[in-house]
């Protein structure tokens, strides 16, 4: 299985982009991106999402064979229920960040629904 760094390097080469072009687009240091491609560190979730968008792929394809999180065999980050399978080649911190972001999104949706309900009552 290809590492995240190998995938980033191949995707960048496929787009004929330099590291500095990607660094400028993401607003990160040369050192940070270089370490990602060298598999010395991993990007945080925000940068991982930006990289996936830049390369027109998703974070699952960047991080693992098919996905790092599987919900009842569905490729989804959505509402995680049931058994969760974690590909152990990735840091637990990254998984925790993804789950925290999911919780934050759920809270935001809940808040928006309450606001809509209150507006409809008026």
From TrEMBL:
GO molecular function: DNA binding
Presence of keyword Ribosomal protein: no
Stored SMART domains: HTH_XRE
Organism: Epilithonimonas vandammei
PANTHER family named in the record: HTH-TYPE TRANSCRIPTIONAL REGULATOR XRE, TRACRIPTIONAL REGULATORY PROTEIN-RELATED-RELATED
Coiled-coil residue spans: none
Protein name: Helix-turn-helix domain-containing protein
Pfam family membership, one: HTH_3
Region forming the signal peptide: none
InterPro entries: Cro/C1-type_HTH (IPR001387), Lambda_DNA-bd_dom_sf (IPR010982)
Domain HTH cro/C1-type per the UniProt entry, residue ranges: 8-62
Record keywords: DNA-binding
